[in-house]
């Protein structure tokens, strides 16, 4: 490390590496904002889906007379359930209700998919796909007479596939309300984490930039002060005295300048250009005082800085 450096080159490189890491992290903030907006859009879709499910159910129950059940009001309770479950899951992640929802989602999602698959198969079969299959199954022991008359494919769809499709799809639709709450909770958690991460990245980047600038300023100030100290080391006492003498002579000259100007104007003007309080000043006395001050020589100032001279003055 150089004598005029507060931090070595290796330390400055480490500081710059820390700054670069935080700045690069802050550069990903736009992507986090985009992901947060997409999560918010998905949350809006899920919330609307939950509202629609509850609304349609209570609209069907109320019928034309909605004196006791307001479908719109009950639909908005979906938001209450979403927020309530999110707060509960965040405060008590091991709560029984939270665990039930988490476990049920693992069953409801495949149930919904199976029901949807069966339903699509039944619709396609009823729409004419079954006519493409012309296979007759011979009578077997225990086979149903209907199966012999209708064919085994028709019998399977009529007695097995259709009931399973209705049952699985109904359970899936009913469980969709639970799945929506589960998804909304995850989206809310993601949005909260992203927002915290965004502000954290920006805050750390600003702090890193500020600290790095402070380090650069400290390095510069240290180098400047060290240079001044080195200059003082190479200066002897006589050189320092001459600097002080020149500074004092300059101050005296600047201080006498307005008085000289006033004295010159008073000599060529019949009336003083000052206030009444200045008219009583005697120009001759001012000229004498100026002459006494101008008579001060550099050697007089040097003598005045002598400690012995100061002791005599006391």
Number of helices: 10
Number of self-contained structural domains: 2
- What is the distance, rounded to the nearest whole angstrom, between the alpha carbons of the first and last residues? 50 Å
Largest sheet: number of strands, sense, barrel closure: none
Structural class: mainly alpha
Poorly predicted regions are 132-144, 146-150, 272-276
SS strand fraction:
under 5%
Total DSSP E strands = 0
Question: What would you note in describing this structure?
Answer:
This protein is an all-alpha fold. The chain folds into two domains: about 10-230, no CATH class; about 235-314, no CATH class. It has helices spanning about 10-25, 30-60, 70-90, 95-125, 145-150, 150-235, 235-270, 285-295, 300-305, 305-314. The chain is elongated, with a radius of gyration of 47 Å.
Features:
314 residues; mainly alpha; 2 domains
Strand-helix topology:
Layout (H helix, E strand, L loop, with lengths): L8 H19 L1 H34 L8 H21 L4 H31 L18 H6 L1 H83 L2 H32 L14 H12 L3 H7 L2 H7 L1
Helix pairs in contact: 1-6, 2-3, 2-6, 3-6, 4-6, 7-8, 7-9
Briefly characterize the structure.
The protein has helices at about 10-25, 30-60, 70-90, 95-125, 145-150, 150-235, 235-270, 285-295, 300-305, 305-314. The chain is mostly helical.
């Amino acid at each position: 490390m150089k004598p005029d450096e507060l931090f070595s080159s290796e330390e400055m490189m480490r500081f710059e590496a820390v700054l670069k890491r935080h700045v690069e992290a802050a550069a990903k903030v736009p992507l986090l904002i985009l992901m947060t907006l997409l999560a918010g859009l998905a949350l809006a879709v899920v919330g609307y889906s939950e509202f629609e499910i509850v609304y349609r159910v209570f609209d069907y129950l109320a019928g034309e007379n909605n004196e006791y059940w307001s479908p719109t009001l009950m639909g908005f309770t979906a938001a209450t359930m979403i927020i309530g479950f999110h707060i509960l899951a965040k405060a008590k992640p091991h709560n029984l209700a939270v665990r039930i929802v988490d476990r049920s989602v693992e069953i409801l999602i495949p149930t919904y998919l199976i029901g949807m698959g069966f339903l699509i198969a039944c619709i396609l079969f009823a729409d004419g796909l079954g006519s493409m299959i012309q296979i007759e199954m011979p009578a077997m022991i225990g086979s149903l007479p209907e199966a012999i008359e209708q064919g085994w494919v028709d019998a399977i769809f009529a007695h097995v596939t259709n009931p399973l499709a209705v049952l699985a799809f109904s359970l899936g639709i009913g469980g969709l309300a639970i799945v929506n709450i589960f998804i909304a909770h995850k989206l809310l958690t993601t949005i909260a984490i992203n927002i915290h991460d965004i502000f954290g990245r920006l805050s750390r980047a600003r702090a890193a930039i500020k600290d790095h600038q402070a380090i650069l300023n400290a390095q510069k100030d240290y180098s400047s002060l060290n240079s001044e100290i080195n200059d003082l080391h190479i200066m002897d006492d006589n050189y320092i005295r001459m600097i002080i003498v020149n500074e004092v002579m300059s101050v005296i000259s600047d201080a006498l300048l307005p008085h000289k100007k006033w004295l010159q104007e008073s000599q060529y003007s019949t009336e003083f250009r000052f206030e009444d309080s200045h008219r009583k000043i005697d120009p001759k006395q001012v000229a004498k005082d100026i002459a006494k001050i101008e008579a001060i020589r550099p050697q007089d100032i040097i003598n005045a800085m002598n400690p012995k001279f100061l002791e005599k003055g006391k």
